[in-house]
Write a structure and sequence with these properties.
Elements (H helix, E strand, L loop, with lengths): L8 H16 L6 H8 L3 H7 L3 H25 L4 H18 L6 H7 L6 H27 L9 H22 L3 H15 L2
């Protein structure tokens, strides 16, 4: 987690919830867990987030904001499609290896989708739509530049790549071996580069 001392209370609560969701899932944490981690009273959490779903939704929105910003940057300037995918997978490789973010918050919540409040579930779905759109944009640009060799529609390739990344997270977690993630995503990147 980010150092709490440099954050305001609301941000500290969201950061704590994000980490707890990534490590335990939505149904595996409570306001008591967040209060203990952030060193505040539960009433303080309710002041910022009346319901647990509100707090979880803020954690998802924090992740989505990063994707939306990346999409905006892609639209503004020239970019290297391969480097974009390497940055994306490299981010997760580091987070899994050092346990700072051992699983994507939206990925964990997607596993619990049937038990989530509908507005939170909608936020999780929107996260995946945003990520898929970003990947489709990157893959399309890479194919147009002759960097990537797509075997199907860019939208389907984006969904496949996204599924591979999330599957690699799950495999690394299941085996307790962070290096599994890198091996799987590197193979997916090599497939995109093959003529």
């Amino acid at each position: 987690m980010v150092g709490f001392s440099s954050m305001n209370t609301r941000d500290r609560l969201v950061d704590s919830a994000r980490y707890l969701i990534q490590t335990r899932g939505y149904n595996g944490f409570s306001y008591a867990d967040v209060a203990e981690q952030v060193q505040v009273r539960k009433a303080s959490i309710h002041h910022h987030f009346p319901a647990k779903a509100d707090l979880a939704r803020a954690a998802v929105e924090q992740s989505r904001a990063g994707i939306v910003e990346q999409i905006r940057l892609l639209e503004e300037a020239a970019f290297d499609p391969l480097r974009q995918l390497q940055f994306y997978t490299g981010y997760w490789e580091k987070c899994i290896a050092d346990a700072s973010a051992p699983f994507c918050v939206a990925g964990m919540l997607a596993c619990e989708l049937p038990s989530l409040p509908e507005d939170l579930a909608d936020g999780v779905r929107a996260h995946f739509r945003d990520l898929s759109h970003w990947l489709e944009t990157v893959l399309t640009a890479g194919a147009q530049a002759g960097v990537f060799h797509l075997k199907g529609a860019a939208s389907a390739e984006a969904e496949s790549f996204m599924s591979t990344v999330y599957g690699a997270m799950l495999t690394a977690r299941a085996y307790g071996e962070p290096a599994k993630f890198s091996g799987i995503v590197q193979a997916a990147l090599r497939r995109l580069l093959q003529a």
